[in-house]
Amino acid sequence: MRRGRRRGEVSPQSRSDSASRTRAAGLLLAIVVVVAAGAVLRLWGIRWGLPNADRLCTYHPDEGVNLFNGVLAEGVARPHLDIGFYNYGSLYFLLWQVAVAANSAYGLVSIPPAPAADLPATESLASMMLVGRLLTACLGVATCIVLWGYGRATRDPRGGVIAAALWAVCPLAVVHGHFATVDVTATFLVACTMVASVQLLDRKTFAWAAVSGLFVGLSAAARYNVAASVVMPLAAVLLRAGTGRRPTLRHAAALAGTVIACAVAGFLIGCPGAVLNWPKFSADVLFEARKSAEGMGLLFQGTGNGWLYHYASSLRHGLGIALLATVTVGAVVSLGRRKPGDVVLLLFVVTYYGLMGAAHVRFARYMLPVLPALFLLTGGLPEAANRWRPARVGAWCLICAGALHACFVATGLSVAMGDRDPRDRAAAFITRSLRPGASVAFGTTPWYWSPPLMPEFTAPIPGAARRTALLVARGRYVLRLPGPEREWDLTALGDPAPDAVVVSDLESQDALRLRRPEVTSFLERAAQGRRKHVFDGRPSVLGLPVVSGGYLPNDLLYVCPRVSVYMRR
């Protein structure tokens, strides 16, 4: 005979429902904290190196080019579809144009222009640059929400929260989440493609095929090489989902055709210049393809195998060694799970990583698009180890160690971006130490790596044109520059000897790595009869170094260079 429940006793079903609600509330609170942390890390130092009276553009070499070519039309801020600049896809620049127009109307960002510029404060170079950076930061934070959404879509909300947390604190994502460049926008759209693809995997509907294809096209319209993300929806079409059925060949072909057609449509929506200005579009794309195949001077020369370089350098420094170990374990363990969703993610990682490793241009930021997939695979570690307590504890320890170390590095870099840049400190030191008319020598033509002794140092123009502009401009000091098409020219140090010599590791790091004799000779000559003053940008937290004191990937070194000033005794 079934006995009745005692008064006050809670049924097992009620206890289960209560526990589920508690877990859901905990995960919701966790994602709120993650989003807040991601926002703080990206907004801290967001004004780093903005244009001012000393700098025409920022210390990031691409931001000025992006602003002048992608946002301004004949020097004026106004929306226009054919930007005439297609080294990158135009989607981010079109969004930036809209953001600048909105800011001009509502005045949310207002930084006074340089004294000589006759512009409203909302349309100063600094204001427009900051608007572009804020757009990037918002999309970087929104990526956390997308990764959380992926976890909910795959019925693993805990894994989505883990992936979102790793993205929020990842040093490479945090640093490039400060810049007015295309990379974070492309990565956000790749993450959206992942969510749409996993929905397509389960449902095999034309609606999700269209959505996933649209995101593929939009992401490629931000950065061409992430067109590789098309492998995710195409794989989702072919793979059998957990509860779904394998589609017929005709149905699968129709779904794949929908993906491709919507990808093309998405690309043209985000990059209409491919139709409006085909000659310029095709010429710029071919230029970038040749550069990728040939390399960029000394920058990546002698870095060996591209696939190994990206792992040992781009990901090693971009994630931190602890988080790199964590995502490596996550990717390896996912191979054994054989979940269709994991297969979709791994196919993209392998395809995109393979393309980037084959190129001779190897910026660390090129690894950003694979990070959401790697973090999602890592978020599945606790579930994979759920049946064995020691493995589960080990998985959580590994994730926490990787996240904490990454947060430590990202915090240090963000704090460094909020502090006074070493180039500014070096310029102030030179101004205090040298009289007007003194001579200052450089190993290469000054650019973003140099203390801004003249605003034109950061001009977004080619090196030869910038050298000519610097030589004819009137500044506080006499500049001793290398000869045309030359670097580390000893004649710049010849009689009469310059009063100071300035060298940044952004310009010398790769030459010294390759042991170029002309660089060694230049530095030895610069040190003769001079005292070396070093302005170090490598950050530390509580006295602990945040990044390597040696080699750093070029696009992480942007924010923490080491500037040496050799001053005559």
Runs in which pLDDT lies below 50 for 5 or more consecutive residues are none
Helix content: 55-70%
Rg, rounded, reads: 26 Å
User: Could you describe the largest sheet, including whether it forms a barrel?
Assistant: 5 strands, mixed
Q: Termini separation (Å)?
A: 102 Å
Q: What gross morphology would you assign?
A: globular
Helix segment tally: 23
Compute the number of strand runs: 9
Strand order, largest beta sheet: 4-3-5-9-6
The fraction of residues assigned to DSSP E strands is 5-15%
Report on this model:
With 569 residues, the chain is mostly helical. Among the domains are: 187-417, no CATH class; 422-568. It is 59% helix and 6% strand. The chain is built from 23 helices and 9 strands. It has helices at 12-43, 63-71, 91-106, 125-153, 157-169, 171-176, 183-203, 206-222, 231-238, 249-270, 273-276, 278-294, 306-319, 321-337, 340-358, 371-379, 381-384, 389-418, 422-433, 463-472, 505-513, 517-527, 554-557, and strands at residues 72-73, 76-77, 439-442, 478-480, 500-504, 530-536, 540-541, 544-545, 562-568. The strands form 3 sheets. Strands 4-3-5-9-6 form a 5-stranded mixed beta sheet. The protein has a two-stranded antiparallel ribbon with strand order 1-2. The chain has a two-stranded antiparallel sheet with strand order 7-8.
